[in-house]
Amino acid sequence: xxxxxxxxxxxxxxxxxxxxxxxxxxxxxxxxxxxxxxxxxxxxxxxxxxxxxxxxxxxxxxxxxxxxxxxxxxxxxxxxxxxxxxxxxxxxxxxxxxxxxxxxxxxxxxxxxxxxxxxxxxxxxxxxxxxxxxxxxxxxxxxxxxxxxxxxxxxxxxxxxxxxxxxxxxxxxxxxxxxxxxxxxxxxxxxxxxxxxxxxxxxxxxxxxxxxxxxxxxxxxxxxxxxxxxxxxxxxxxxxxxxxxxxxx
Length: 249
Ligand SMILES: NC(=O)c1ccc[n+]([C@@H]2O[C@H](COP(=O)([O-])OP(=O)(O)OC[C@H]3O[C@@H](n4cnc5c(N)ncnc54)[C@H](OP(=O)(O)O)[C@@H]3O)[C@@H](O)[C@H]2O)c1
Hints:
Layout: E1 2-6, H1 10-21, E2 25-29, H2 39-42, E3 47-48, H3 51-54, E4 60-63, H4 70-73, E5 85-88, H5 94-97, H6 101-104, H7 109-117, E6 122-123, H8 130-135, E7 147-152, H9 155-167, E8 171-174, H10 197-205, H11 212-227, H12 237-248
Parallel strand pairs: 1-2, 1-4, 2-3, 4-5, 5-6, 7-8
Antiparallel strand pairs: 6-7
The structure holds NADP nicotinamide-adenine-dinucleotide phosphate.
NADP nicotinamide-adenine-dinucleotide phosphate (NAP) binds at residues 6-12, 30-32, 51, 64-67, 69, 72-73, 89-91, 126, 128-130, 233-234.
């Protein structure tokens, strides 16, 4: 399986590390060109390329870029075949991404991305904090292995995303369609709360859509007040899990 990863930040770099460890053939790109990608990321065995090249001749594309940047990269996907699996990790934070009217009006985030890219996607790795993702992965069958929800509309997208989530050290959990994926958005009870697979179904079902954005903004404010804006995307795993459980569950 050949994989192109766009975005080598907090989440992207762990994706590269874990999927390279699993033996995947990976190309990686960011917005600034291959020479700007850190040597420790390249050392994992992935090939740094331009963003255009990362989208070409691959079976799977993983997008791990800030939410609003999908509008900037959509032209890169125009010629990508429809059967190529595109997996998106993005979350909408108005404090960081600027307001998007459709989402403020209630559109599900993954449906906005699919509409923007004009193609099916899977949503995965969005509901795990960057530090937890980097530090808490475990081999399959480990008793304390955490789970990550996966949403998609096509079987191929769901199957591939679930297989790759497993390879990154987490139990994949089928969370349903993209229309249902608001249940794994920021502010939801499964969002970065470090749950195990057997807890997922009940906790996903307990989500209340109208409360998500208010709760998301509360947590953002607390993290900012304590650690500053920079830590919004890279908070201590234990602190974030505790805080999110109090506010989101
Ligand atoms: N941080 C978390 O805890 C977390 C958890 C789950 C999901 N997510 C979501 O996953 C996504 C990535 O998060 P992150 O924290 O990894 O972000 P990040 O650290 O800010 O990294 C973003 C990456 O996207 C690249 N990028 C931005 N614009 C681009 C463009 N136009 N073309 C190509 N590459 C572009 C950046 O490259 P340059 O540096 O070259 O611009 C960078 O490598 C976000 O949507 C976030 O909400 C984050």
